[in-house]
Design a protein that fits this description.
The complex is a heterotrimer of chains A (about 270), B (about 300) and C (about 350). Chain A has helices at about 1-30, 45-55, 55-90, 95-105, 110-125, 130-155, 160-165, 170-200, 205-210, 215-220, 230-265. With about 270 residues, chain A is mainly α. With about 300 residues, chain B is mainly α. Chain B has a single domain (about 70-300), classed as MetI-like (MetI-like fold), CATH 1.10.3720.10. Chain B contains 13 helices and two strands, in the order H-H-E-E-H-H-H-H-H-H-H-H-H-H-H. A two-stranded antiparallel sheet of chain B has the order 1-2. In chain B, helix 6 packs across helix 8 (about 170-195) and helix 12 packs antiparallel against helix 13. By secondary structure, chain C is of the alpha+beta class. Chain C folds into two domains: about 5-235, P-loop containing nucleotide triphosphate hydrolases (Rossmann fold); about 240-355, OB fold (Dihydrolipoamide Acetyltransferase, E2P) (Beta Barrel). Chain C is built from eight helices and 20 strands. Chain C has helices spanning about 45-55, 95-100, 110-125, 140-150, 170-185, 195-205, 220-225, 230-235, and strands at about 5-15, 20-30, 35-40, 60-65, 70, 80-85, 155-160, 190-195, 205-210, 215-220, 240-250, 255-260, 265-270, 275-280, 285-290, 295-305, 310-315, 325-330, 345, 355. In chain C, the strands form four sheets. In chain C, strands 6-7-8-3-9-10 form a six-stranded mixed beta sheet, with helices on both faces. In chain C, a hairpin with a 7-residue loop joins strand 17 and strand 18. The chains are: A mainly alpha (about 270), B mainly alpha (about 300), C alpha+beta (about 350). Chains in contact: A-B, A-C, B-C. Chains A and B meet through helix 1, helix 3, helix 4, helix 5 and helix 6 of A and helix 2, helix 4, helix 5, helix 6 and helix 7 of B.
């Protein structure tokens, strides 16, 4: 039994290495003082970072990605809050099939989502822009937002909202005084994770963006030019760092919320 | 009179709304449903419609026709791409699920205090840029890449190994790495749900560790395994980034040819038919897989 | 009922799908009354309470508060407040803010708000607990906070949904007494839902016994115990022996009843000649003696000594089921003890037998 545990632990370490080591080559070579991404390392430099920051196209694409990500995160979370509440609180006829429908984007290849939206936008003569990119991202973010919020609302004692109504608050104020503060960790986590999904997405943006590009599209374009690779590495390392911080924060907020609920149940 | 009737109407509607849980639930769901109908269902319907049309020069012939499906399924190159996409995805699915299972098992059954840290470590790659993870493999496998330059500077080889990049194996390795986090979470969730007293009961009834795993743990975790397999198989068949960056001409998949129809060739109906056909094929294969797995699981006693 | 009727539940019916949760309930609750809805789980008592509160709406019938129709009003428009079974203490607020929750929208002056919450804390003996977090309270404290939060709004009716169910036995008994005293001192009408018949009997002015959505009987605790109106009520409240009987003749208000193995007897009842009836007899109304008297003879099958009383199952020839008997163990010399196998004689005072309709 004990030796089996040790074997599994070793396996887990190797597995983590498989997950992380390939990605860690990006930050490693981003500090390497050479045009070529190859061993042996030739010295430490931050020139690729300064080159990246100096590039106006990078900051423009970054700003676009932030705008699209913020819009997609806000809209999909705002859509998901009432939807997740309805699915966990009420017996809605057809609720299960509606949830399955909303989760479809998780099971459709991104390229199909991209081209189908492209066809629709083309048919309705809506010009491609960052707005259409945001629309595409909302479609892929909603399933994530709903999943996060449904798990937050599950086990949510419905008599808390009833108590508020009973104490004289109407439905709207009950939402702001009870539902919202209790769901807040889930809402923050949904916002952050939806933002990440949008910020990372390349393929949907690739089909739906007009002349204004997002960061992944910009990076994609740079990959063709070998002399640009070092500064793409710097950009990639930077994105990896920021997303790691955001994800850890999002998961921390979410689990804190769950802990809080557990304490409450112990207290009862 | 009319005003009174209208007031009466409103009052009755409000009355109905307050009394009906279903109505309140639907009202809360409706914004999401409307957006998803407009931005998911409508585009998919249009895609299906396009697949029955024909591109004639710059014009679309909207006469119903199965010609695009004839081309999609009839032309040898497209058929080969379908087969290759499915082969690559099947291999990726098998590898990721097999590799992920012991990891998920370890976190669910062996980790006690630092579960949260392990879960975070396994979740971070899930959320970090897919494009960058694929790009990392291009850097690793390239002609002047990490492996080749590393081995050469160690003096183990003198010529860069050319077989590393631009082939189906590179696509499989890259996809298996990129999709690994998708397999762990569903399997972990199902393992975590298993009531530990079931295992004690099995031990009490005389089963050793291996038989316990085969008769209790594995069957109960099967929904997670199926979910993980579907969540990897379905999207990877349509993957575009990986074959483009590390596949080379031998690693091209169906998504590449679809993209070409929408970009350079400009034959949207054919692209739509290719997309529909591949989704149908993947859908049928997935259903068969789920049915077969369930049937096999039902034989466990 | 009388003009004292304060809360009128008028022919209320509620269905959930095919299940008839409440069937034509008709209850008139008086001002200042401690009124209990008693029944097994799933009998519709909580559904009825939730219709009074405004969380569910009847399919038929009306609900009136002081003659005002409230059937369709949402909860926040009703003059009632509720103590929830789970207590529903807001986990993100401290004790003070939980209690002040319903006062915030009344736009009271800060000092007035402070004073009313402090008074409520004193009332529930938790003064000084205001800054405590909701998660730092014991079960009994949560129950008190829920009570204070509802009472601080000065409702006309306080609705309580099994508020003592989650407490352990000792605390529950203490809270029963406190709750009863509190109700008398604030003078508010309480509607109390419980499945615990002892709790209902000890606290209530009147009780409505419910079963399968039906209100079976509405009466004072004493009347419910002494004069149940049907087998289900008799069975649910305390223990009861049932015997078959047949009315063989009438003499004024009295009916002559043939009770088989128990013999012939005359009881005051309206049952008509020829009717099959059910005779109900409480175990503790039966006296046992070893000496042969003009009474029913039986054999002790099982005896259990329970401290202040003893319990016996007596087999009587001609009866399908043994008769249950409870005797008080008064005096130091509990010489009345009977052993299994002993032959005993049972007697009971006139009027102890209750005549019920056969269903």
């Amino acid at each position: 039994m004990r030796s089996q545990g040790a074997g599994l632990f070793a396996y887990a370490i190797v597995y983590l290495a498989f997950l992380y080591v390939p990605v860690l080559f990006l930050p490693l070579f981003s500090f390497n003082n050479s045009m070529f991404i190859a061993f042996p390392l030739s010295g430490f430099t931050t020139q690729w970072y300064s080159q990246m920051w100096a590039d106006a196209a990078v900051s423009h694409a970054l700003f676009n990605s932030l705008k699209v990500g913020a819009a997609a995160a806000l809209v999909s979370t705002m859509l998901a809050i009432p939807a997740a509440r309805a699915l966990t609180r009420y017996r809605v006829p057809g609720g299960a099939s509606m949830l399955a429908f909303v989760n479809l984007p998780l099971f459709i290849p991104e390229i199909v989502l991209g081209i189908s939206l492209l066809i629709l936008l083309n048919a309705t003569a809506i010009p491609l822009s960052l707005l259409t990119v945001a629309l595409g991202h909302i479609v892929v973010c909603v399933p994530f937002a709903i999943t996060v919020l449904v798990s937050r609302f599950e086990g949510f004692d419905k008599s808390l909202e009833e108590a508020s109504l009973d104490l004289g608050e109407n439905g709207w104020m009950t939402f702001w005084r009870v539902t919202f503060p209790l769901a807040l960790p889930g809402i923050v986590s949904s916002l952050l994770l939806s933002f990440m999904v949008s910020f990372d997405d390349f393929l949907i943006a690739y089909f739906l963006a007009g002349s204004d590009v997002t960061l992944p599209i910009y990076i994609w374009g740079q990959l063709r030019f070998p002399y640009k690779l070092p500064s793409v590495l710097a950009l990639g390392a930077f994105i990896l760092f920021v997303s790691t911080v955001l994800v850890v924060f999002a998961e921390w907020v979410r689990s804190r919320g769950l802990d809080h609920r557990k304490h409450k149940m112990v207290g009862a | 009179m009319a005003v009174a009737a209208k007031g009466e109407m409103t009052a009755r509607l409000a009355h109905f709304y307050r009394r009906s849980e279903g109505a309140r639930g639907l009202a809360l769901l409706s914004p999401t449903m409307l957006i998803m109908l407009a931005a998911l269902a409508a585009p998919m319907a249009l895609l299906a419609l396009y697949s029955f049309w024909t591109q004639e020069g710059y014009a679309l012939n909207t006469q119903f026709s199965l010609a695009q499906y004839g081309t999609s399924l009839g032309r040898q190159t497209y058929r080969a791409l379908f087969y290759r996409s499915i082969e690559i995805s099947s291999a990726v699915t098998l590898i990721t699920v097999l590799l992920a299972y012991p990891m998920a098992y370890f976190v669910a059954f062996r980790v006690e205090r630092s579960k949260f840290v392990w879960l975070i470590l396994l979740t971070i790659p899930f959320w970090t840029s897919y494009l960058l993870r694929v790009f990392a493999w291009k850097v690793i496998l390239g002609y002047n890449g990490v492996i080749n330059s590393g081995l050469m500077s160690l003096g183990l080889i003198h010529q860069p190994l050319e077989f590393l990049l631009y082939n189906p194996i590179a696509v499989v390795v890259t996809l298996a790495h990129a999709w690994a986090p998708f397999a762990i979470l569903p399997i972990y969730v199902n393992l975590e749900k298993i009531d530990r007293s079931l295992l004690e009961a099995a031990a009490d009834l005389g089963d050793g560790p291996l038989r316990r795993f085969c008769r209790i743990t594995f069957p109960l975790s099967l929904p997670g395994v199926i979910a993980a397999a579907v969540m990897i198989f379905v999207p990877t068949t349509g993957d575009y980034v990986t074959p483009t960056l590390v596949g080379g001409s031998d690693g091209v998949m169906i998504a590449n040819i679809i993209e070409v129809q929408f970009d350079r060739v400009g034959n949207w109906p054919l692209g739509a038919a290719l997309a529909m056909a591949s989704m149908a094929a993947v859908g049928i294969l997935t259903l068969l897989f789920v049915q077969a797995t369930r049937a096999a699981a039902a034989r466990i006693r | 009922m009388s003009d004292e009727t304060y809360l009128n539940i008028d022919h209320v019916t509620k269905r959930f799908g095919k299940v008839l949760a409440v069937n034509d309930a008709q209850i008139a609750i008086r001002r200042g009354e401690f009124f209990s809805l008693l029944g097994p789980s799933g009998c519709g008592k909580t559904t009825l309470l939730r219709m009074i509160a405004g969380f569910e709406f009847p399919d038929a019938g009306e609900i009136y508060f002081e003659g005002m129709r409230m059937t369709d009003e949402p909860p926040h428009m009703r003059p009632s407040n509720m103590v929830f079974q789970s207590y529903a203490i807001f986990p993100h607020l401290n004790v003070f803010n939980n209690i002040a929750y319903g006062l915030r929208r009344e736009r009271l002056a800060r000092a007035e708000l402070q004073r009313r919450v402090e008074d409520a804390l004193v009332m529930i003996k938790l003064d000084g607990f205001g800054p405590r977090g909701a998660n730092e309270l014991s079960g009994g404290q949560r129950q008190r906070v829920a009570l204070a939060r509802a009472l601080v709004r000065r409702p006309k009716v306080l609705l309580l949904d099994e508020p003592l169910g989650a407490l352990d036995r000792r605390l529950r008994e203490a809270m029963q007494i406190e709750l009863r005293a509190l109700q008398k001192s604030v003078g508010i009408t309480f509607v109390f839902v419980t499945h615990d018949q002892e709790e209902a009997l000890s606290m209530s002015d009147r009780i409505a016994v419910m079963s399968a959505g039906q209100v079976l009987q509405i009466a004072s605790p004493r009347e419910l115990y002494e004069a149940p109106n049907c087998r289900e009520v008799a069975d649910f409240i305390g223990q009861m022996n049932f015997f078959d009987g047949k009315v063989t003749g009438r003499d004024g208000g009295m009916a002559r009843i043939d009770a088989g193995a128990l013999g012939m007897m005359e009881i005051e009842t309206g049952a008509s000649t020829g009717a099959s009836v059910l005779l109900a007899l409480r175990p503790e109304k039966i006296a046992l003696s070893a000496a042969a008297t003009n009474s029913v003879k039986g054999t002790v099958m099982a005896a259990a000594y329970l401290g202040e009383r003893s319990h016996y199952n007596i087999d009587v020839p001609g009866l399908n089921e043994p008769v249950s008997v409870a005797t008080q163990n008064v005096g130091k010399i509990a010489s009345q003890g009977h052993e299994p196998g002993d032959t005993v004689h049972m007697t009971w005072p006139p009027g102890a037998l209750v005549v019920l309709p056969r269903d």
